[in-house]
Amino acid sequence: MSDYTLYAYFRSSCSARLRIILNLKNISYDLIPVNLLKDEQLSAEHKALNPSASVPLLVSKRSPDAGFKIGQSVAALEYLEEVHPAVPALPPTSDAKGRATARVLCEIIAADTQPVTNLRIMRRVRALGGSAEEWNKELMGDGLRAYEAVAKDSAGKYSVGDNVTMADACLMPAVWNAQRFGVDLSQFPTVSRIFANLSEHPAVQKADYFKQPDCPEDLRRK
């Protein structure tokens, strides 16, 4: 039996964060797709599981936490780090500075960037007569600029040193989204280098938007 159930959408960056860390830690999970474009996250059934009406939702199957639900991606990342420490996704506890830096980088994406560029906000920008694409391009660029400013001092092969952390799990789908909206990544040499290195990592490759079971066939990466 798998360890978790993951409610997710293939092109949800928050869902991809969890897939990357689940893959990194070799944690088994069952996927239940939630189609955001069809508003399945707004159904009464899904809201009963996740009052935020969003994805991802991680549900534990492991004793003693069986049935425990986490409906926020960063909280789920922290939980997985505490419950499955064998393959760490943060620097060691002896490196408080490194751990704090990884969390700062997570929040630049998860608190400052993604919430103002998600599907719900894009729909509202369009309803007000604006260009959601230009909105996202500008704000995603702002987020990566902040990430670059911090990561240039902390990065090794990856965002904080030479091991993949939860910061990288947040960064990777943020860059995928930035590419989609035409952000010029050449402005961010550190981010671009980290992105290139992460692109070679099996945990990231397996989490690719376009390799997920719920990805439409015409978008699927062969």
Automatic annotation (TrEMBL):
InterPro entries: Glutathione-S-Trfase_C-like, Glutathione-S-Trfase_C_sf, Glutathione_S-Trfase, Glutathione_S-Trfase_N, GST_C, GST_Zeta, GST_Zeta_C, GST_Zeta_N. Gene3D superfamilies: 1.20.1050.10, Glutaredoxin. One of its GO terms (biological process) is L-phenylalanine catabolic process. Residues 95-217 form the GST C-terminal domain. PROSITE patterns: GST_CTER (PS50405), GST_NTER (PS50404). Belongs to the GST superfamily. Zeta family. This is Maleylacetoacetate isomerase. It comes from Metarhizium brunneum.
